[in-house]
Amino acid sequence: MNNPADPRPDDADDRITEGQETAPPEVEAIPEPEGATEIIETDYEIGQDNIQNRGGIPYDIHNPVFVISASAILIFTVVTMLFASSLEPVFTGLRDALTGNLDWFFLTAGNIFVLTCLILIVSPYGSVRLGGPEATPDFSLSGWFAMLFAAGMGIGLMFYGVAEPMGHFDAALAGPVVEDGVRTDWAPLAGATGDELGARRLGMAATIFHWGLHPWAIYAVLALSLALFSYNKGLPLTMRSVFYPIFGDRIWGWPGHVIDILAVFATIFGLATSLGLGAEQATAGLSHLFGIEASLTTKIILIVVITLIATISVVAGVEKGVKLLSEANMALAILLLVFVIAVGPTWSILTGFFGNLRAYAVDIIPLSNPFGRTDDNFRQGWTAFYWAWWISWSPFVGMFIARVSRGRTVRQFLIAVLIVPSLVCVLWMTALGGTAISLTLGGFAGITEAPLELKLFSMLEQLPLSQISSFIGIILVIVFFVTSSDSGSLVIDTISAGGKINAPVPQRVFWCSFEGLVAIALLLGGGLTALQAMAVSTGLPFTIVLLGAVWAIFKGLAAERREIA
Q1: Positions of the region Disordered (predicted)?
Q2: CATH number, span 58-564
Q3: CA-CA distance, 240 to 255, in Å (whole number)?
Q4: Distances (CA, A) of 94 to 86, 264, 535
Q5: How far is CA 243 from CA 146, 395, 538, in A?
Q6: pLDDT at 18
Q7: Is the pTM of this model over 0.85?
Q8: Per-residue pLDDT for 319 more than 60?
Q9: Is the omega angle on the peptide bond into residue 64 within 30 degrees of 0, that is, cis?
């Protein structure tokens, strides 16, 4: 039987000398496990179900994953654009129904993911090495941390970096509001009525809750399962491989097709949500800085232009396009962060970092409790939406993390994936959000009064060199926009090409263009509400997929421990 990481015919071994490439260039060259591991033998070969055409417009697509995914997304986009004027109530109702009735499910699932990671860290399974007991890391520790840091940065940090801490602070300070026996406020937990320090502490704790251990546990679970079944079991680096312990060879049939289709849906709508947020904030920033009208037309033009830039990056490839933009992205993000810390309330930010971590540790259990709470708006409108959004991004970020983590033990992997990006997010939120709260407590009301997408620029306006920092903020939003689109397109293309990483360029262009079209369609069909509705809708079924991955991880690690013993 053939190892899917080495998809040669059985009689080809004698035609390949030592050191030669054992897989054609369009197939992911997954390294063989090193040491005693439980290899899963299968007759499946990467791309065996694909439909190919090398003439005219070349394509190499997995049947039926590509066909069903692309057709469904195309139909959705066309229908949304045709009936845009009447769809906003539909999207609003969909979002409210899912978050209102299933918030307990999202919160419970999030808790399961965190507990899974913590159990694995302290259990004997933590000693299992990804890639086999004799595998060595592909990247240095500093380089690996840098890539985990890069994975943690996104448009959401720009959009919510000021808006979320300020929103929670204001709501907590105002305290609970009860009408007809029901709370109508957005304060987390019981709020902190009239207590400025208490409201600040609770607002930052709630923000970190949404950007700390829970979301990164979501990524860690999927990334660990992908890495384990690819690097230790010899299966392709695709979503369906994770479910081999559940479905066996049936993962190459319809059970696997459904899993991959759900991964495509979750990723493209999760990306569309982020792109829509980026368009909202970038146009608001352009209007604030240069007086350009922040109209729907401006947002659409911006999405089109940036989608074109992302397409050029995708065509250029990972090394020349995606990598260069990602490095520029990181440099700009660090520059903005250091600037805010240096010219803002520096001492308050530095001490606030540790104080906010302490507040998070105190409030994490009540904030993660799915039952018996009265803060419905916060729990449903913020937390349930966030968990669905993070889950919709998990195929994209999880596959990236899995790619760069071979050679690490499970314990090293989970500690790094949970802690490093979480601390980066805490520092980011403390610097931007903490500065905004300090300015507000100092008497400046502009941040509170500014629209959601303008709060960042309203805060920067109160610091030195505001024109320059605001311009950097706009550029950063745009570059985040581009890097999310091009990187996401590559991942979606890999899934829809049956695991091939170098499928024909037109397929990458297709997915990159579709991400922009879906974002435009959702903005036309209901703006931010529509974006949130689709993130929640696609995150719901993929939550079930992730819960299945938890069981598969324990099953796979148990076999690895037996091999080592």
Answers
A1: 1-34
A2: 1.20.1730
A3: 8
A4: 14, 20, 11
A5: 30, 14, 19
A6: 35
A7: yes
A8: no
A9: yes
